[in-house]
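Chapter summary example.
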Amino acid sequence: MTDRLGIIAGGGDLPRQVAETCRRGGRSFFVIALEGQGADAWLTPDLPHAVLRMGAAGAILERLRTEGVTEIVLAGGVRRPSLSDLRPDWYAARFFARLGLKALGDDGLLRAVSALLEEEGFRVVGVQSLIADLLMPFGVLTQRRPDEQALADIAHGLMVAHALGAVDVGQAVVVQAGLVLGVEAIEGTDALIARCGLLKRDGAAPVLVKRAKPGQDRRLDLPTIGPDTVTACVAAGFAGIAVEAGGALLVGRADAVRAADAAGLFVTGLGGCG
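The structure predicted for these 274 residues follows.
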């Protein structure tokens, strides 16, 4: 008998896709939609779920056990709240007390959450193990290919993103003609794209580069792009998107490539990122 899957859902379309994949495959699942993250927008009464705030860790664990969940996937983006907004219950407060005063980036925090879930007897799995063909493939996916300037910007962006990820800050960087227009921090990729669209210079258009952080747990928070990323890059006047092949997720591949082709944008999967 297949283990029941718990989907801890943040924002974006990825949690819905995981739930639909389970439904089509006849796998039992239960969704914990994190309050205020947008996941409840696609939930329907016939879909097994509960909406709980992020700080209610004890209630989340209790509900997962009550529902017979044994495997857990963390899916979708999460806007990281302040401690006052989080309103941690006793269990969450104990968790943060265990972390002490360490300043954790997203990867460090997710590793701690994953370790806690496994201590509690759950098995944490990566979303890419549940949905076929979700990982970014190698090579150019679009009609347009990156030109010589774009290739140079991509190479520079990879080095910057590696340094950025090494200190657990972000996974994305925007480069134009060798100039770093912006790096991703707490604002997320969409806000980074919009900000850099206002900063771009004349000449060759900017490129968005995304890669996994060095040593990142590949079950957790892989860099993700999709149709919305393409739309944002088109609106900001970018030349294209370059993402680590095998180390990032491409959600809604057909729609993303179709939108990129319609706008003359390139999308490419990068090999050998290390």
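To summarize the output: Residues 4-129 form a domain with the Rossmann fold fold (CATH 3.40.50.20).
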